[in-house]
Amino acid sequence: MSEKAFEQQFGELTPELQVVYRNIFRRRDVRREFSGEVVDRERLMRVLAAAHAAPSVGLSQPWDFHVIQDPARLDSFAEHVGHRREEFAAKLVGERRETFNPIRIEGIVDSGTGVVVTYDPTRGGKNILGRDTIDDTGLMSVALAIQNMWLAATAEGLGMGWVSFYHEDFLADFVGAKAPVRPVAWLCLGPVTELAKERDLERFGWRKGLPLEQVVHWE
Ligand SMILES: Cc1cc2nc3c(=O)[nH]c(=O)nc-3n(C[C@H](O)[C@H](O)[C@H](O)COP(=O)(O)O)c2cc1C
After folding, report:
1. What separation in angstroms does the CA of 44 have from each of 3, 27, 152?
2. 147 lines ligand 1 (CB under 6 A)
3. Which of 66, 93, 162, 190 is deepest in the core (most CB within 10 A)?
4. To test the ligand 1 pocket, which listed residue (162, 165, 167, 168) has its Cβ within 8 A of the most ligand atoms?
């Protein structure tokens, strides 16, 4: 959102409220802007505390956070993702292929830290209050923890990028997760030089975001 548009819609709010909205609109999916430093333990733990404060169905808190900072392990995951990128690129034709080529889909090594978030559907026992009719609510809870992380990271001056170009069984083995526990995301997390104003996929012409009016439906 441009500064002008922000001022128009949120400029009249109290400074406290503006900080919240600013953080939401400043958040970016980060690939390119990692500074190369590694996040310090205190900041990392604050971001993970924000994740762990997320709402969860039946208070099941079905998430675990696996922190990976060993450069050799980061390299090894980046190599796996590189192959998945090639597979995806091979499916694209014409303009889509040209447009995809320069887009970075990961910042695994540059970020210095990977956080693999896993989902444990057995957490909280058999009868999870609220998951009885919609099993996906467990996975939804994990996504909310990730969004909390993303916003906390943004407020901390960190960048975060969600990588999903991987085979689930590879990542499960990588962090030693045994079924039914599933990896849900690899998150690149680290200090940044800046946060881009524009979304990468818009910047590179892959896809444009939709206007709010198109997705709000009254009555
Ligand atoms: C579930 C999920 C998976 C994603 N996986 C990838 C990915 O593998 N590679 C990538 O470059 N971006 C990935 N993204 C980032 C999206 O492309 C990005 O959020 C979207 O373009 C909007 O940009 P913004 O987050 O900066 O607003 C993922 C985002 C989500 C929510």
Report:
1. 29, 17, 10
2. no
3. 190
4. 162
The predicted-structure confidence for 56-66, as pLDDT tens digits, reads as follows 999 999 999 99
Q: What is the mean pLDDT of the chain?
A: 97
- Could you give the CA distance from residue 6 to residue 25 in angstroms, rounded to a whole number? 9
CA–centroid distance, 14 to ligand 1, in Å, is: 31
Give the residue-averaged pLDDT of 56-80.
98
pLDDT-based confidence at 1, cuts 50/70/90? confident
E-assigned strand segments in 60-201: 63-68, 114-119, 158-163, 182-191
Decide: 106 and 68 in contact? Cβ < 8 Å. Answer: no
Residue 185 C-alpha to ligand 1 middle, in angstroms? 11
Ligand 1 centroid vs 161 CA: distance in angstroms?
7
pLDDT of residue 127: 95
**pLDDT of 113 over the 90 cut:** yes
Which residue has its alpha carbon closest to ligand 1 atom 9?
Answer: 105
Q: Residue with the nearest Cα to atom 14 of ligand 1?
A: 162
Q: Which domains does the chain have, with CATH numbers?
A: 30-206 (3.40.109.10)
Nearest 5°: phi and psi at 190? -175, 165
Residue type, 178: K
**Residue 7, pLDDT above cutoff 90:** yes
pLDDT over 70, % of the chain: 100
